[in-house]
Amino acid sequence: MRGLLKSAAALLGLAAAPVLANSPTSDQIEVMDGVEAFFEALRSDDKTALANTLLPEGMIFVHSRMNPEAPRIDVVPAADHLARWATQTRKVDEFMHIETVLVDGDMAQVWGPYYFTVEEKLSHCGINSLSMIKTDDGWKVANTSFTMEPPAACDAIVAQVNAHWEIEQ
User: Fold this and answer.
1) Is the pTM of this model over 0.90?
2) Please, which residues have CB within 8 angstroms of residue 65's CB and are 6 or more apart in sequence?
């Protein structure tokens, strides 16, 4: 049920986005469903579920600004992340407001602010950029880039994301 409410909220926000003057297309809705499946797998107790939503051949680019004096970009092969993820025991969750969905055939790009919690405590926030690929099993995350800001810099992003989840709260 949580996923349906989030998808509905995301659709409402997407419909209002300046990039998309009209309601989302069926292709955009399918892409957003793939993104929601990724987040559902992320928060799942089943640590193998993430492998069904993230292509192991992909790459993850982390634009870390956790230490403002020493920002860095970490590049992580998705296969390495999936291997580490399988041993992860902390409860995590991610909340994203999808602002933009671009689709061209079997490729799509999803963009928007997010925040990430660990054991229900804010860990970081930023902007997500998800490259999606349509497979026989549906839309999957192929590559992702995201900024990573420290909690002290997250008030505006958390408020922006939460403003789109009012239907759930």
Assistant:
1) no
2) 71, 126, 147, 148, 149, 150, 153
